[in-house]
Backbone:
């Protein structure tokens, strides 16, 4: 479903060099509850029964009030919210995909024109089978998120008992297991709906060879599109769609631009002084945090280009210390964001 585009203030934080600032002392992520005795607890999904409104474990970053942060309604992200006329619900949950640019500065002097008009920010969840498939449509010119596609995915090769245990372990502790059970659909249905969403935005046509048009996937690591999507396609007995054959690994762009390695999203956010919002390892929250990292990098002057391409059995790699694509053996690691 299309969500409204919000105006974006184009501001830049000017740096003398692309090197990121040091670790910012107030940044913290979600350690075990006992380590944060004074933390505030938030709901992270739209829950449609009074009994399920008990707050899950989700921790407040010190700057959330500054960003006017509210958890996303996870029914709304899937086009299934039935409480849009409820003022209390609207006040409690976020129903917009827009991301305000958080940098202070004098302009966009460091900003570089990008090869792609849009980036599709993807961060899958689920180790055995995919459980969550979130994609943000990120405008490369405005640096804002203009729409999103979000579906929970129901495994097809697991028993109901195993699914229930799996979801309780993954999402129960943060209180969104109910919305998962209410909305999860099979992976092949997710892909069919995703292709309709891409076509609506004129980013893909099956008749044109099935490749993306003026857009590229961005992932935090190679695992999502190198490993997990092909595995899930085998489980679903479907051919790997052509638009999953190439992508941008944010870790490679970060390393080549800042000349320092970041193992994952959390380390990038530490280095760039970006507080974590939402719950880490909830896919839709992680995609939004990845998009905030991208905003920061783009205002610093980073150029986002393809880092991996799967073709004729080969994978073309982005050289980790230069801006060159090289043809070679598959040296990717199974890295997660």
Residues:
């Amino acid at each position: 479903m299309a969500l409204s585009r919000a105006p974006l203030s184009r501001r830049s934080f000017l740096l003398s060099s692309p090197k990121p600032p040091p670790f910012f002392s107030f940044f913290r992520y979600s350690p075990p509850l006992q380590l944060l005795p004074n933390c505030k607890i938030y709901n992270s999904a739209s829950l449609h029964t009074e009994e399920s409104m008990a707050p899950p474990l989700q921790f407040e970053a010190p700057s959330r009030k500054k960003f006017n942060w509210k958890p996303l309604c996870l029914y709304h992200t899937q086009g299934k919210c039935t409480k849009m006329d409820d003022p209390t619900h609207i006040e409690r949950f976020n129903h917009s995909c827009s991301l305000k640019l958080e940098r202070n500065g004098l302009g966009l002097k460091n900003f570089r024109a990008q090869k792609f008009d849009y980036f599709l920010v993807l961060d899958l969840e689920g180790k055995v089978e995919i459980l969550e498939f979130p994609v943000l449509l990120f405008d490369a010119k405005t640096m804002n998120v203009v729409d999103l596609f979000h579906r929970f995915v129901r495994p097809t090769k697991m028993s109901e008992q195993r699914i229930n245990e799996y979801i309780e372990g993954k999402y129960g502790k943060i209180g969104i297991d109910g919305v998962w059970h209410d909305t999860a659909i099979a992976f092949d249905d997710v892909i069919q709906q995703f292709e309709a969403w891409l076509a609506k935005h004129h980013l893909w046509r099956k008749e044109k060879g099935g490749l993306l048009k003026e857009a590229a996937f961005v992932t935090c690591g190679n695992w999502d599109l190198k490993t997990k999507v092909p595995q899930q396609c085998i489980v679903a007995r479907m051919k790997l769609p052509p638009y999953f054959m190439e992508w941008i690994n944010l870790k490679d762009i970060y390393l080549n631009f800042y000349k320092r390695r970041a193992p994952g999203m959390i380390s990038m956010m530490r280095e760039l002084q970006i507080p974590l919002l939402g719950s880490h390892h909830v896919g839709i929250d992680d995609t939004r945090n990845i998009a905030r990292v991208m905003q920061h990098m783009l205002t610093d002057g980073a150029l986002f280009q393809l880092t991996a391409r799967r073709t004729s059995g080969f994978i073309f790699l982005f050289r980790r210390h230069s801006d060159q694509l090289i043809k070679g053996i598959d040296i990717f690691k199974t890295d997660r964001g």
The helical segments are 87-92, 160-171, 177-183, 187-200, 223-235, 250-258, 265-271, 283-300. Residues 1-64, 321-334 have pLDDT under 50 and may be disordered.
